[in-house]
Every structure is written in C-alpha cells, then in structure tokens.
Design a protein that fits this description.
Elements lengths: L1 H8 L1 H6 L8 E3 L2 H10 L3 E3 L7 H13 L8 E4 L8 H12 L5 E8 L12 E5 L4 E6 L15 E10 L1 H9 L4 H6 L3 H6 L4 E5 L10 H15 L1
Parallel strand pairs: 1-2, 4-8
Antiparallel strand pairs: 3-7, 4-7, 5-6
C-alpha cells in the first residue's frame, strides 16, 4: 500500500516537472525500507523517536533535502491514503499558492452520515466562505443542536501541505493538550495560531485504518481497472 501511495504521489512530477518535485517515503521501519529499495522507490530512514509523522518528515527534510534546493512547500502524504492521485496534490499546491494559509489540506464534503459517528473518520469544522478549518475532531462536529440544520459534514483527508516556515514552527513546538486528547497532530498547528486552509476533494477517498477499509480500497481499484 505504501508503495502505491509513493507511485501515485510521484504523478505530481509529471504535472509540475521532474526538477520541481522530490518524492520519498520517510520511515523508521526496516521492512518498509527494504521493500521500497527492492522496488527502486526512494526511501529515507529516520529512526528518531517523534510524536508525529510530520516531525519525522521535518527531520528528513532538514537532513536530506533542505540543502539541495529551495522548496516552496513540503507535503506530508500519509501512507494510509492509497486513492490519492498526483492531480489531487497539484490541486492542493495550486490552492496553497493562491491562499494566505500556513498549511493546506484536503476535505471531502459528505451528505451521507453513515460514517459520521466513526472515530476513525476525522471531521473538519470547515467554513467554505473563508476556506479555513477551525477545528478537527474524531467526535461528531459540528453538533446540530436542533437536529435539523446539519445537511453535510466534512471528512478530513490525511494530507498536509506546509510552507517550510510553518513546518518548522510546528515541529519546534511541544505536543499540545488537545492534540494529545484527540490524537490529531493538526490541533497543535491550530493552537499555535497557524491557519489551515482546505482544498475540496474531487473524488472519493478511503483512508485505511482497519482491515475492512483495505477491502473497500481494493474494490475501488478493481472497478477503476476494468
């Protein structure tokens, strides 16, 4: 699955240009490193003990990429988003370029509430007028007090596009109280006053949190191959 995510993320090179994009898997797992090396995919090993995947990516960026060239953005694509395409990342970069936010992510608008109560599905309190995310939670937010107003909700997709200065500020700050409670690293960024904007998803995403999610992804991939 991680190899597939790497392959799909590499599609960004075809859109923005080979010399404009570097793609690598950052891991502390010897099995993942060995597997990707056998496939000829770029992998960077960072064994430091960190609180989040973003911090591991920051260490990889500082040690292996920051001195190579000046990067405008550092994108964290989580390895459990196998339906992500290079076009999605290109859209995210374009959105970030045209916004003043420190961090850009992706949200998917949902009118089906069957997964709204699932804590594995992270909800974004997203305001379409400003394009900003005001909070993220595993709980059912926003809460519809009267039970008649909430017609849709926003699913957060596990992708973050950082301006390097925002990435540095995030990683130099300690784990926040809300981040620790919800186990959502983006709450640290909000606590620091960093603005998180969101590009809206253009197709279905299925984050793989449990074995049954993987079966759903395999079904989508099988349909798209026929």
């Amino acid at each position: 699955m991680i190899s597939l995510v790497h392959e799909r993320a590499s599609g960004l090179k075809k859109i923005l240009g080979e010399n404009q994009v570097e793609v690598a898997v950052v891991t502390d797992d010897e099995r993942i490193e060995k597997h990707l090396n056998e496939l000829g995919q770029k992998v960077v090993r960072v064994d430091d003990e960190v609180a989040s995947g973003t911090e591991r990516i920051y260490l990889a960026y500082e040690r292996h990429f920051a001195d190579q060239k000046s990067f405008d953005y550092v994108i964290n694509v989580q390895g459990d988003e196998p339906l992500l395409e290079g076009e999605d990342l290109a859209s995210l970069v374009k959105y970030h370029q045209e916004s003043s936010c420190d961090i850009a992510t992706i949200v998917a608008e949902k009118t089906d509430f069957s997964e709204f109560k699932n804590p594995d599905r992270v909800k974004a309190v997203y305001e379409k007028e400003s394009g900003l995310c005001h909070y993220f939670s595993r709980a059912c937010v926003p809460h519809d007090r009267d039970g008649s107003e909430l017609k849709k909700w926003y699913l957060h997709i596990g992708v973050y596009c950082y301006r390097p200065s925002a990435l540095k500020a995030f990683c130099q700050a300690p784990v926040s109280e809300l981040e620790n409670i919800e186990k959502l690293e983006q709450l640290r960024a909000l606590g620091l006053g960093l603005k998180i904007g969101a590009d809206k998803a253009r197709h279905e995403f299925i984050g793989v949190d449990r074995p049954e999610d993987l079966k759903r992804v395999e079904g989508v991939l099988s349909e798209s191959a026929t």
